[in-house]
Design a protein that fits this description.
385 residues, single chain, seven-stranded mixed sheet, 7 strands, alpha/beta, 2 domains, Glycerol-3-phosphate (1)-acyltransferase
Amino acid sequence: MDMNFDEIRCYTDNEVHEILEKLTNEKQFMKVVSTAYPLMPKEVIKERLLSYHSQYEFQKDFIYPFLQYLEENTTKGIELLGLEKIDRNTAYLYISNHRDIVLDSSFFCKKLMENSMNTVEIAIGDNLLIYPWIEDFVRVNKSFIVRRGLNVRQTLESSKVLAAYLLHTIQVKKSSIWMAQREGRAKDSDDRTQESILKMLNLSGKQDDFIQHIMQFNICPLSISYEYDPCDFLKAKEFQLKRDCPDYKKQPSDDLENMITGIMGYKGKVVFRITGCINEKLQGIAKKTSNRNEQISRTAQLIDFQIHANYEIYSVNKIAYDALTGENRFVHEYSNLERIDFEQYLLKQMNKIQLENKDEKFLRQKMLEMYANPLINFLKATNQQ
C-alpha cells in the first residue's frame, strides 16, 4: 500500500517557486531574511527569492552565503572528515549527536556542498515550527516534519508514516537524510541513542528480522564536535528550572531564544566526522543474538560507540574534565592561559543567566559536565578510562 507523505515531506523542485512566492508575502519572514542580509534591499531579496526553481539552486545561492558568513564570524572553521568512508553514490541515514537546533544539519549540508555532494534531507520536530511560515521555509529547504506531542495511537500511526517516508527517501529517492539520535538535544552532552528511534525505523517493514530490515537504511553515524556551545548557559538554566520545578515546560519563546543564540553565538572550532556505514557490524550483532530487543539495544550502543570514539577533543574538554573530577589528568595537555581563558568564559556565560534563586555552584557543575562528557565518553569508547 502506497502511503501519502504530503503532510510531512519536504517540497519538490516543482513547488519551490510557488512556496517562495508565498514566503515573500510574509512580513515576519521578510524581516528575518533582511536581518540575515542587512546590506540587501528588501526588493532585491524578493526578486532573488522569486528567481529560484529548485531546492539546490535556493540552497546554494541563498542559504549557503549566510552559512559562509556564520562560519567566518562565529567559528574558527568547520571541518568535515571521513568522506573516504562512504560511497558518494549511496544514500545514507546519517544519525548524529545533537548540539545545536539549526546548525548541526545546516553546517553539515554546507560542507557537503563544498565537496560537490547533494545536501541531505533533514528531520525537524514540529515543536520548532513556531510560526506557520517556518514550516514552509524548512520544507522548501529540504526538511521533513516529525510530529510530536501526540497521543499513543496517533504516535504509532505517525511513526509508521515517518518510517515509511525515511525508507522511501533512502531506497526510492536515493537521497541521504540527517537525523538526531534522540528527540531534542542532549543538554548535558552525554550523547545516547534513543532505542525508540530504532523501533520507529522498524515500523516500515513487515519483517520480524530487525537487523535485515534496518540495514536497508544504510545507517551511518555522524559525530559532531563544537569547541564552544553558545547555548551552554541556557541549557544550564533549564537544568536548574527543572530541578526547582519538576513540572517546568519550555515555551516556544525558549526554543526561539535557543535557535537565535545557537546561530549567532561563538562556536570556536567545529568538526563533523563521518564514521562509516554500520551494516557490516549489524550483521555481527545478528550472529550474536536473535532476540529483537537485544538487537535494538546493541544497535543503539553501536551508534553511540561510533559517535563517542570519533569526537574531536578540544582543550576546553580536558580543562572541564580536570575541574570536574579534580584529577588533573590532562594538566600537561593545556596551558595555564587556556585554563584561565576557559574559567573566564564560564564566568561570562554564567553572568548571562537570569534566575531568582540562582544556584552558582549547581550551574557551574552543569556547564562543566557539558564540556567534560564528550571526553568522558571518548575515553570509554577508546578504552582509556
